[in-house]
Amino acid sequence: MSKVKWLADNEKSVLVNNFEKRGWIRGTSEEEDWNFFWTSVQTTRCIFNLDSGYRLGDDQMINHFPNHYELTRKDLLVKNIKRYRKELEKENSPLTEKDENCRYMHLDFIPVTYILPADYNIFVEEFRKNPTSTWIMKPNAKARGIGIFLINKLSQLKKWSRDSRQMGHNPKDTYVISKYIDNPHLIGGKKYDLRLYVLVTSYRPLKAYLFQLGFCRFCTVKYNSSVSELDNMFVHLTNVSIQKHGDDYNDKHGGKWTVNNLEMYLEHTHGKEVTDRLFDEMNWIIVHSLKAVQGVMASDKHCFECYGYDIIIDDNLKPWLIEVNASPSLTSTTAADRIMKYTLIDDVLKIICPNGEIPDPRWNKVPNKDALGHFDLLIDEELAAQEQQETKSRSVSARHSRSRPQQQWKRKVKF
Predict the structure, then answer these.
(1) Per-residue b or e along 43-58, where b marks 16 or more CB atoms closer than 10 Å to that residue's CB
(2) 131 half-sphere exposure, CB direction, 13 A CA radius
(3) What is the pLDDT of residues 225-238, one digit of tens each?
């Protein structure tokens, strides 16, 4: 049996150790001699660039869809969710039901967001309706908390615009500005968010899995919504890349809890029913964010993707989708972090390359249940359609049996 040849743009130990554990050998990019490539988004862009003339073979898989950015770019995520809502409204879907304040009752899972500079006038109009509100600015194409800041005055936005021009920033750079969740659920007085890992093996039909071992990231400084603390990112941003520079950062636990610890804490403080509903709502958010991009995503059979979902919970225990990461960090900050990320990659590979064999993009991507590891099935439209058809067939058969029992049993078979 031929051994899988791997490549990786980022040779993190959690990747390389998993490859070597399976007896895989290093391939070569120069001769395009590889079967499994853990690429950066930049390499993915080059591979699928029409000018490159490159065609993936039937024994090759990579870890990004060609236009993954439809979900992972902050502005496109917002555009696609808004478009998804409008499409469902045209279909008169019950999912688009609204409350007395004209808010979606089932699809209200992203904060009010505008894209700058295109939506500047609309944003100003919205801001003036509630001039004491706080908003958060994020550059579309950056990660790890880079370039993020909070504002509560229009003058701050105008000053930022002037300063950006003076510093020579590209005027075509776009930002999203979102209503800041200023009432986050706190634990020990500190703000936190959740990092959940979602594996997508196909968009049409949609097949997605949720990793059980996600984690919470905590700020190192207790939350304070005071205007005087708007510039203190140790209060507001949970990114480890920011918090690790704080005086109160604990490098033993890395300011993290497991999702299981959070679940137990919430069950103790709010009860199991409330906690179960919260986790169901987070699953709902993930599924419908994927459905929002399903129609525009290039569902190439050679691709899969392990996304990092960032979700924040407010003090009403309502979850909000903050962003989706195409290349969630595989850097380990603690021993527990290293074990979790090693397990994540191990379980991804069990699903994508069953038995550690050369990948075959032609298979229907329905893994054996024993191969799921710590992943739970979120949605499989193909399996759902099959089950629906079987249920329908059984129902028709039962009605047929009840309505014409004599004919069913007395019919003669002709050969």
Answers:
(1) bbbebbeeeeeeebee
(2) 4
(3) 877 777 777 788 87
